[in-house]
Amino acid sequence: MFIILQYIRDLCKRRKPITSSDLLLFPHQTHVRGTAKSFSRRPKTRFAILALVAALSTVAPAAQLTLSWSDLSDNEDGFSIERSDNGSPFTQIDTVAANTTTYTDANLAPSAVYSYRLNAYNQFGASGYTNTASATTAPLNTPPVISAISDQSTFENVNAGPISFTISDAESPAQSLIITATSSNQTLVPNGNIVISGSGSSRTATIAPSASLTGNATITITLSDGIDSASESFLTTVDPTPIPESDTIQLSIEEFAGGLYPLGQSDAFKAVVTGAQSTIQRVEFFDNGELVNTALNAPYDFTFIASASGNHALKIVVTTDSGVYENSFSAIVGTPPDNPDTLTVASSPSTE
User: Whose CB has fewer CB within 10 Å in the chain, the N or C terminal residue?
Assistant: First the structure.
């Protein structure tokens, strides 16, 4: 071995092209061309330190690892990168150009052990390998979870909420999750008017519409664990302030003769209800404070019977889901005078 190295050294000192006779001692090197100086310049075999940085990609479901090393060669054509997957034999996975000092191995499996080594090469051969660097890829991240939120409605100048919802994440505590809320209608509901409250997994959202405005806004609540995110959207409708039912309901009496009724006479009439904003539960007819009849469905038909002489305070009472309303009217019941006594005629003397 020493003799071979000495021979090569001597060739280099000659500074002349290598001839075929120079190569007869080394028949296995007949493919080499050029000067003795170029023949001797293999990549330096000093070992470079290989560092490995594990990283989890935020834009793809797979993990990635980044290698970095020191380039100690000044005549390499490139670097050959080899990898061992979970203890398997090393195989070349890629080559990179000269003067490169980093390499990212992407689309790796999560929670897997990868080992790497590399060497420099040129047309005359390859250097020795670097140290072996190993790392375990991060586990596959599970996106956080936010519960469903139903559509909401409110009236102008009235807040919607608090609206309850829950959050969770397989890898992170709920308290560390990041919650943001946005509105599709910044005029009606600015983002700043959506207040998220609560702690842990139990949260609430309160929505404050802008003053005196009505309309619709889609509210989106986004939950992030720093890697993946989830969102829940729901429609919020802001309606005009309603007019109270007491201002809209109308109760009238139709087909009632009224006035004077002889004892024993009857009078059929109808109670008509309009403008009710809620369900009518029942309509009742009272005579002098006593309940006479109840109707549950329209038409609300009643009959007044003049069963007693005197004044009759009559009243219709309507009960709805929102309130109780009434309309009063009256009738007078009397008897005709008694028959006069026997009529007699007396004669009068003549005045003549």
Answer: C
